[in-house]
Amino acid sequence: MDQMYLSGGLIATDDMGVFVLAGSTVGGGSAINWSASIRTPQHVIKEWCNDHELELFDSKLYQEALDIVCEKMGVQSQVQEEGFNNEILRRGCQELGYPVNNIPRNSPPNHYCGWCCFGCKDGRKRGSTETWLVDLVNSGNGAILTGCEAIKVLHKRKKGRRDRNTATGVAFKFEHGGGKEIGFVESKVTIVACGALCTPKLLKRSGLKNVNIGENLHLHPVAMAWGYFPDSQVFDGWPEREKKSYEGGIMTAMSTVVAEFNKSGYGAVIQTPALHPGMFSVVMPWVSGKDIKHRMSRFSRTAHVFALARDKGSGTVNAPPDSISYEMEALDENNLKIGLEKSLRILAAAGAEDIGTHHFKGKGLHVKKANLDEFERFVKEESSRPLRELSSAICSAHQMGSCRMGVDSKQSVVNQMGETWEVEGLFVVDTSVFPTALGVNPMVTVQAIAYCTSQSILQVLRRKKVEHKN
């Protein structure tokens, strides 16, 4: 994690209320994400078009971009063998009559890898390091420099222009001879894709003054429930004795039972995480040394199911000082509570012996020994507890919106072409341009937006070429 995640995976909001995971490696988030490749939901497209007046998302170009991105990544929805966590999520949903569907993934049906959160070791997950970046290098039109940090976007006022500067390149630090040196790259257009946490910082360091930079940060807050499944179960062969929580496709099943897709669009989806021993020990509540040892001894047979909220509330990326301010709105907290309730029921219905949440009190319920009243009381009490003020481990693996796209500079940082309002020829192509939270895994959406922005950039370059000839 120290090599592939921003700040070694040790990031939190300034009040420590949300643990934040963000990719910081060649390929960015696509190198360490969990393979989910979900198209932009139709209700989100409708909201971005109608409420935010962004015609791009209802255009033929954007639909074409979604198709091209999914084809490029080999997105498909089949799964040959399901892993421990997803098998439990699916079984629990089926027992309760909750909707459950296969998650489209950028990996083949037989990709049984629980380690893609550290990069796909066999390259079968088709992130940008297996697709777009390969095309870049093979074309001969670009190179990849690792261990670099962008310091500042360079820009200056053109003769005859009074309204805004024009981007001319980037200053950056790079590793050389065991130390750091400063380099400069001149460019006809400059593209920033540092992610929703780092792009605002770079723009501010570069002298941009737009008040929306760093604002409107959405985190897709996640709250988890756990269930313990001993090796021997009352269900014959369920789950398979040899299956472990850290093996198999990280995400292959999803429930939209509380997603509100057909209503407000602001609810929670239910999925499964990648939790290896280090992260498992961090998010599990600390009651005592003896208790955490007991929990760790059951790690390989402890399943996790989480609720991910499409957060209506937002926070701020501050720079300087470097920090993240974020507080959940009551609506988002309530959606997570409802999702937690469903998650506990799913785990119990799938056959868990013990269930619980990550609330700091560390309470659990032995399902087999509890009667119906005791079970209902436990589920309602645990899912109604406050999720703010450090009472429970809340996590974020998706950050977006901190340089959002819009139709005017008073409400946004970039226009529909992805170009900043302040500096001509400076484009942003990462999740920071999302107008709102997305509500599902953002990989397909961000790549589709990047594809559309690339078409705008090509138009700019063609225009510059014509102007240069004249």
Automatic annotation (TrEMBL):
GO molecular function, one term: oxidoreductase activity, acting on CH-OH group of donors
Gene3D superfamilies attached to this UniProt entry: FAD/NAD(P)-binding domain
Domain Glucose-methanol-choline oxidoreductase C-terminal: 323-450
Signal peptide location: none
Oxidoreductase keyword on record: yes
Pfam families attached to this UniProt entry: GMC_oxred_C, GMC_oxred_N
PANTHER family registered for this protein in UniProt: LONG-CHAIN-ALCOHOL OXIDASE, LONG-CHAIN-ALCOHOL OXIDASE FAO4A
Similarity annotation: Belongs to the GMC oxidoreductase family.
Protein name per Swiss-Prot or TrEMBL: Uncharacterized protein
Originating organism: Prunus armeniaca
Lineage: Eukaryota, Viridiplantae, Streptophyta, Embryophyta, Tracheophyta
